[in-house]
Design the sequence.
């Protein structure tokens, strides 16, 4: 697992937990399987830019806004 995958996954998890959503609820919002989303959060999967765009849109963010939240 790369450091970037770990950071992306952690930020996605933090955003989801801030909203009080389960993986199942997020999956319903973004139209994706909860197992796939969980693997991304754990850094086990590398999401395509299209998948990442759908996920962050579920949090009312753009990809640019999302990446701006990742610490240097």
Sequence:
């Amino acid at each position: 697992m790369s450091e970037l995958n770990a950071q992306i996954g952690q930020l996605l998890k933090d955003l989801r937990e801030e909203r009080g959503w389960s993986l199942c609820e997020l999956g319903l919002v973004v139209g994706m399987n909860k197992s796939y989303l969980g693997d991304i959060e754990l850094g086990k999967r590398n999401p395509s830019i299209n998948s990442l765009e759908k996920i962050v849109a579920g949090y009312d963010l753009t990809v640019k806004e999302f990446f701006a939240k990742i610490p240097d």
About this structure: The radius of gyration is 11 Å. Residues 3-67 form a domain with the 434 Repressor (Amino-terminal Domain) fold (CATH 1.10.260.40).
